[in-house]
Amino acid sequence: METEMTAVRCHTWGQPETLSVETLPLPQPGAAEVLLRVRAAGVNFPDTLIIQGKYQFRPELPFTPGSEVAGEVQQLGEGVTNVQVGDRVIAFLSTGGYATHAVAVAAQVLPMPPELSFEEAAAFTLASGTSYHALVDRAGLKAGETLLVLGAAGGVGLSAVQIGHALGARVIAAAGSDEKLAICRENGADETINYSSEDLRARIKELTGGKGPDVIYDPVGGALAEPAFRSIGWGGRYLVVGFAAGDIPSLPLNLPLLKGASLVGVFWGEFARRDPRGNARNLQTMIGWMKEGKMKLLVSGTYRLEGAAQALRDLEERKVTGKVVIVP
Ligand SMILES: NC(=O)c1ccc[n+]([C@@H]2O[C@H](COP(=O)([O-])OP(=O)(O)OC[C@H]3O[C@@H](n4cnc5c(N)ncnc54)[C@H](OP(=O)(O)O)[C@@H]3O)[C@@H](O)[C@H]2O)c1
Fold first, then answer.
1. What is the pTM of this model?
2. What is the CA radius of gyration of the chain?
3. Tell me: the pLDDT tens digits for 166-205?
4. How far apart are CA 184 and CA 162, in angstroms?
5. For residue 177, which atom of ligand 1 is closest to its CA?
6. How far away, in angstroms, is 253 Cα from ligand 1 center?
7. CA of 106 to the centre of ligand 1 (A)
8. Pocket test for ligand 1, best of 56, 241, 316 (most atoms within 8 A of CB)
9. Fewest Cβ atoms nearer than 10 Å: which of 34, 91, 186, 262?
């Protein structure tokens, strides 16, 4: 019987290189928990912040980073009835994903769609769940409307491109390199803007005939937010998704007034907690799209546990397209 597991550990707040890979005793699931054999763990931007102690919550040290995994149920805690040993599942954790095994709250475990690989399943829910919730529940994006996505080749950005395309919107992808924009086109973007080499406002104007996009999806923030907002169309919806650039931008409030536009906050984790059924419905819709071939997830890289620091470093250095995962 297995008695040990391998895990990435964070002992001090700091850069990815301070993480270590260690052997630990195999944890036991408590009541209403399950022990999972992790087959793949999604790497997300918040993981780069959490190890520096800069995220919305600070776990107690030492801890194992990683908030979404796909794997098999290995052991049930007392009172668990929603899954069985051997089931393939996706699980949300607060931490603990970058490991061979993880304990999850049984209520935070979903059956894994059979059409997805473990890698795709670990890359699916957080990014695609966020973008679907943003575009459909928060912005009410409709077929025929124009959607501008900033940071469009990143984890949540590329999923917004894919979902916007599946919903029948005209998608303008904006990113920092031509290589990234080529990937956006392969994933459903109709038009592209390279904001490292082109003037963002001038190109938005050109591509929308001066009208401006109906919906703007912004996971980057920083210096892009104000020029993007100034370009939004009448009655537009500006989705505040994240601040990958580091700076939280501020905006003069006359700008929404002048465009009859809305600034719309997006907090998928809280939405999924408050409305698990709504979230499950959203995920189910996308699984349907994947079956029909209307949506295909992009997992562009896999890393071993020993490569977790490199995965986080690649994310910080803007080298990643779509999603990357850790395969223990
Ligand atoms: N609101 C929510 O519910 C929610 C849910 C999930 C994620 N998020 C947030 O969304 C943001 C993106 O997450 P992600 O996992 O998609 O990250 P990601 O894959 O690293 O994508 C972020 C994109 O931002 C751009 N970027 C610009 N400046 C950057 C910088 N200094 N460092 C890193 N990237 C920079 C990069 O594109 P270019 O190189 O093309 O500019 C990159 O592709 C994060 O802030 C995350 O916390 C929010």
1. 0.96
2. 20
3. 999 999 999 999 999 999 999 999 999 999 999 999 999 9
4. 9
5. 40
6. 25
7. 29
8. 241
9. 186
Bridge-based pairing of strands 20-25 and 4-9 is antiparallel
Whether residue 55 has its Cβ less than 6 Å from ligand 1: no
Residue 1 clears pLDDT 90, i.e. is over it: no
How long a stretch of residues is the chain?
A: 328
Q: Does residue 33 share a domain with residue 73?
A: yes
Neighbours of 9 (CB within 10 A): 17
In 91-140, which residue ranges form alpha helices assigned H by DSSP?
118-132
Burial letters 75-102, b for 16+ CB under 10 A, else e: bbbeebeebeeebbbbbbbebbbbbbbb
Q: Are residues 54 and 157 in the same domain?
A: no
Q: Say if CB 204 and CB 212 are below 8 A apart.
A: yes
- Domain of residue 166 covers 126-268
Number of domains into which the chain is organized: 2
Ligand 1 atom with the shortest distance to the CA of 220: 24
Position 203: which residue type? R
